[in-house]
Amino acid sequence: MKLLKYFCIGISTLSILSCSDWTTEEREIFDNQKGMQRYIPLIEAQSEEDLTPTLREYYAKIREYRKTPHVKGFGWFGNWTGKGDNAQNYLKMLPDSVDFVSLWGTRGSLTPEQKADLKFFQEVKGGKALLCWIIQSLGDQLTPKGLNANDYWVTEKGGGSFTEGVKAYANAICDSIEKYNLDGFDIDYEPGYGHLGNLANSSTISASSGDNNNMQIFIETLSARLRPAGRLLVMDGEPYCLSTQTSKLIDHYIYQAYWESSTRSVINKISRSHLEDWERKTIITAEFEQGWKTGGLTYYTSVRPELNTMEGKQLLDYATMDLPSGKRIGGIGTYHMEYDYPNNPPYKWLRQALYFGNQVYPGKFD
Q1: How far apart are CA 76 and CA 95, in angstroms?
Q2: Which of 5, 45, 279, 337 sits 20 to 30 Å CA-CA off 94?
Q3: CATH code for the domain defined by 71-360
């Protein structure tokens, strides 16, 4: 029997399932007719009931595996529709080694197809999907059209207080996450790259006088709503702006290590000992708008000589990176991860890197 192709990472008890492509049809036994079978492509599956018993057992093990220490798979996932015959537009068709994604370009108001795809991704595959956008100023992406951000968030929602307006904005983000049953928020914070505003500057984010107190309040409010409910709060871009105390409110520090040319330069970029548990909470990412055909930079130099002769060496190095203490990196990811889909096999580079990071070069996680 042909099965869908998956990389089974980090679990020695699971065997790797393989087939010619992602839409190979799966056998399913009719309830009332033993020996007779029907075919349901994964792309058409709506729930666990549409899967074979073998795949149900497989995904149950995948969901348990996600709870164990490993190099996590991540990406910014764009062009999401959850409909049509193009598997590139589905969360459910991402590799099983992907733990969570940030939905790039999604602002809420999910379609029925997106809701169904999200539900399958969460409940069957055990994945998580986060809202994400660049945070510069109060009300970004959520200020109603035609209204002034200050009038709406400070005057109307905050009763004239900027601080209360910040809390109202953070709570509005949480309301959207809860309404659509999403799994958290990814704060894209890039003041040093031109995205400055009344919430974003290069000062340390903390409750101390003179620091970025507005962003501190924003993070505190998000964390208080999301994390007790089992949802994630992560920061990408410039997480080193976090103070030690504030870093305790963040689940992952995600670095856009797009143009780093060597293992050493990446480690220099991410080594931030003032951040809580920085090694295991850090995720490093490669740029796939341009690098999707080659798995990242072709001129990258890995500290592992054998990787330098391989294609996709940047992402391979990221997934197998051991930090100064000997601990393995917390996770890896790609920007516009869906651009990796047209490769053969689909999501070739991310699959390969996570396989290397969790099986070929097992790491130390404590």
Answers
A1: 14
A2: 279
A3: 3.20.20.80
